[in-house]
């Protein structure tokens, strides 16, 4: 009974985190006072997921083989890193020092992609060759997540750098000169 409750808490918080996490990835959405509850909700969902996971590992520990103990100890370690990155992301949003948006996004992306990996590993474990399916799932998820994040960042981060020089113009000579009248 306890194990079933812990599994439901873990899975429910994970699915909730996947849904809410999509909204908190944008630095713009977390700066508005009315949206800070989303950031807190995401943190609470991840906390419930991690606490339930650690409780499940502790409950099952006496019955686990040595290899499974290593794997679950590693998962608990990953959980600690997820918690650390979540706290760091929240700190960046709270302090809002120069360039905070990129750091916030990187921290929250780590937590969010970790939720996806956990969600996708479960079916991969049931495949005929899990020792191949699990690493392939992790690598595919990381690759797709990285590509999506790279496309997403320019849309949500402030543009603080000058645009790159046009192709074929190593010295930037094709760029229009700044106007003299504006000085």
List keywords for this structure.
disordered C terminus, 183 residues, single chain, globular, mainly alpha
Would you kindly provide a written description of the structure presented here, covering whatever features stand out?
With 183 residues, the chain is mostly helical. The chain has one domain (2-156). It is built from 6 helices and no strands. It has helices at residues 2-24, 27-31, 36-60, 66-95, 100-125, 130-156. Helix 1 packs antiparallel against helix 5 and helix 3 (36-60) packs antiparallel against helix 4 (66-95). It is globular.
**From N to C, what is the helix and strand string?**
HHHHHH
Radius of gyration over all CA atoms, rounded: 21 Å
Poorly predicted segments: 171-183
> Which class best fits the helix and strand makeup?
mainly alpha
How big a fraction of the residues is strand? under 5%
Overall strand count: 0
Count of DSSP H/I helices: 6
Average predicted local confidence, pLDDT = 85
Helicity range of the residues?
Answer: over 70%
Strand count, sense and closure of the main sheet? none
Shape: globular
Distance between the termini: 74 Å
Number of separate structural domains = 1
Transmembrane segments: 6-25, 37-59, 65-87, 108-126, 132-150
Organism: Egibacter rhizosphaerae
Protein name: DUF2306 domain-containing protein
Keywords: Membrane, Transmembrane, Transmembrane helix
